[in-house]
Fold this sequence. Notes:
11 strands; five-stranded mixed beta sheet; alpha+beta; Immunoglobulin-like
Amino acid sequence: GLNATVSTEVEFGVCTVTCGIGIREVLLTSGCPGTEAKCIVRVEECRGPADCGWGIPISEGLACVKMPCIYIPPENRFKYVWKMLIPNKTAQILPNDSAIMEVCRDTHSVTFQCETQENGNTIASVKYTVYATTEMETKKSRRTETGQSRRTMTDAILVFCLVTGIIVTVGVIFAMVFMILHRAVIKSIWESKSGQDNQEKKLANKRSLCNME
């Protein structure tokens, strides 16, 4: 165990959430057993701003959507209040009081909000937009078109690279064949060039000798 006679210092870890309710570690920075510089003494709750903005559904299909409230175990510790938000009207409280609600799509988009309450106080709030069936089909078709256009562009780039590689390879092969077939000519040209260079060097040496004399 920890030595109670040693003065202790406490450090708090990072909260697991930026809004609502989460957990964090409480670390001891002095008096840990052995050679440990820090050790966990407990895990406690931590809270951020209650408004968590817009959430992401657990599952979202063309027909129905599952939406979670914000909570930490145990689930039954909190009270959950689901509301349907109507523009320019008072929010309609729904009979559902569970942490997860499943709704099916309607002919128009609907915004839902879940308030997680404890002792009558709202400690977390999150909203979801459930789009209409027609909007989801439109989004799906747009995603399909985008995916097809990306695949088309990728295919075009691959074809271009393949054609360029073939052209370069064929050019190298032709160059090698040309050098093999005309090896004698290339050799004679190289030898004649080397001879001219040698003659020029000899003449230059003779001129330098004459100048010295």
